[in-house]
Amino acid sequence: MKIAFVDGPWPHFGHRTQRWPHKNPGGNINPPPIFQMYAASVARNMGFEVALWDAPVLNMGFEELMDEIVRFAPQMIVQNTSTASFDHDIRLAQMLKQRGDWLLVMVGPHVTPLAHEVMGQVPQVDIISLGEYDETIADIMSNLDDLTRVRGIVFRSEGDVIETEPRELLRDLDGLPYPAWDLVEIHRYWESMFPKSKRPVATVMTSRGCNYRCSFCLYPQVLFRQRLRLRDLNCVVDEMEWLKREFGAKFFYFEDDNLTASWKRVEEFCQLLLERGLNIGWGCLSRTDKVTEERVRLMRESGCFLIKYGVESGVQTTLDALDKRKTLDEIVHAFAVTKKVGIMTHATVMIGAPHETKETIRTTRRFVKKLGPDSVQFSICTPLPGTTFWDECVAKGWLSYDRWEDFDGVSGGVLNYPGLSKGEIREAIQNAYLDYYSSLPHIKQRIKRMIRGPERGSQFLRNFWLLRRLCMVLHSKMRRKFSYGH
Fold first, then answer.
1. Of 375, 370, 374, 394, which is closest to residue 383 (Cα–Cα)?
2. Which of 179, 180, 384, 452 has the lowest CB atom count within 10 Å?
3. What angle do CA 232, 233, 238 make, to 5 degrees?
């Protein structure tokens, strides 16, 4: 029996296979569909024939995708979803049901908290798999005669919608087979921040969940139920060696919600990489608390090239409102020591959090300049279903949207506050980008990196991408100004 795993088209460089689904101007970020790759690998080990289509990365349209799925002739289709892409996900579901009599299963962080609502609004959906679904898909296929035996799903039966008993979270992450990298083209997955000479890039997860409870964070709340589970580090490095040997991976990006949840574990991991002599580069997401020069220096010695730090805001009361549980001084210290040892820094910043004002936005912009990251991501603060932030926004009447794509944190915007509109938030994002990347200190820093820093060729190419991005922002501002003038 055949199972097709599908990440459907999302025009204009949209990617739903990340904790913050959005469209990427210029297509410079291409994350792999890691959860579908895990589920496909499990299903294949159970004896099912599998195929996977990552339409956004393949630049594949709806009709082309449909033709390929029809040729594969699966019994079941597993369709990935996200909030910002759900308008397009519905369109794909409708087209799929028009072209074949297959079982359609939706998965992902959007349909998990809204399962019954989706079943009512999208009649084409047969089953929704809730939360992490590594083993659920094969379980469904093995129990088509009685789906009540499958835990963790919502399905239709004789006109009724039935939800089965919850499925336990996976206890042994190392018991999963490696993701099915042979079903995708590894060289297509990269980010412009990664060193060009270190491609191809492989994504690895050493853990799932987080030991903090930031109100907006999607995966820990919706997929992993606020539980942190860790893999054995030897198994992680075994996987890295396999990826290097079988697929030529030279750079590894750790897609953990918080790789530095345990600094002792990070130190052990770095020592293990040095002992194994992998000679690779790597990058990760991290919080800024408990960062020391000794720790990041060890990370650098083991191959760490890039750390993405969750900054979110330069205002302490805003951080407290988001339940970040960190201080501005910790953020400043983390960036200072990381830059000192020579690791590239990236700051993720949200604009439009609760109690945001034009003055707090200016404060955050000044704070980011003080940090001086090699790159920064200014995103529209966006509540996603299933998070406590979503519940707060619904309760206080802050949400204002016409379509699901408004939840795109780059080009959308759904929060309207009494003193700050979503249009003003979008404008603030563009101004923040222009202000930071056109500042003289940052220009000097980029030139220095290009001349003396690590991976100078990559820095040179990234400078061109940043220039293109700034031109896009300027064009957008001028077009909007012109339209307002008429």
1. 394
2. 452
3. 100
3-state secondary structure of 7: strand
3-class state of residue 415 by DSSP: strand
- Looking at the structure, tell me whether residues 154 and 209 fall in a common domain: no
**Angle between helices 456-485 and 440-452 in degrees, nearest 10:** 150
Q: What are the backbone dihedrals phi and psi of residue 92, each rounded to the nearest 5 degrees, phi first?
A: -65, -40
Residue 8: Cβ-neighbour burial (10 angstroms; 0-12, 13-18, 19+): buried
What's residue 59's pLDDT?
93
Q: Is the dihedral of CA 231, 233, 238, 241 positive or negative?
A: positive
C-alpha torsion sign, points 104, 110, 114, 117: negative
My answer on whether 196 and 148 are in the same domain is no
Position 168 in a domain: no
Same domain, 146 and 204: no
For residue 430 the two structure tokens come to 């563009």
Residues 235 and 377 in one domain: yes
Any domain includes 484: no
- Residue listed under structure tokens 């800024």: 288
CA distance 52 to 64: 14
180-233 tens-digit pLDDT? 999 999 999 988 888 888 899 999 999 999 999 999 999 999 999 999 999 999
pTM assigned to the model:
0.93
Q: Which residues pair with residue 156 across a beta bridge?
A: 161
Residue 267 has pLDDT above 70, yes or no: yes
Domain that includes residue 121, residue range: 2-163
Q: Is 134 within a domain?
A: yes
My answer on whether 127 and 210 are in the same domain is no
**Which among 213, 242, 248 has a CA at the least distance from the CA of 228?**
213
How far, in Å, CA of 176 to CA of 180, rounded?
11
27 phi-psi bin (left φ>0, alpha ψ -120 to 50, beta other): left
Q: pLDDT confidence of 19, banded at 50, 70, 90? A: confident
Identify residue 470 by its one-letter amino acid code. L
Q: What angle is formed at CA 195 by the lines to CA 61 and CA 376, rounded to 5 degrees? A: 80
For the chain, the distance separating the N- and C-terminal CA atoms, rounded to the nearest angstrom, is 59
For residue 399, the 8-state DSSP code is: B
Residue 179 lies in a domain: no
Helix (H) or strand (E) holding 6: strand 2-7
Question: Which amino acid is located at 65 in the chain?
Answer: L
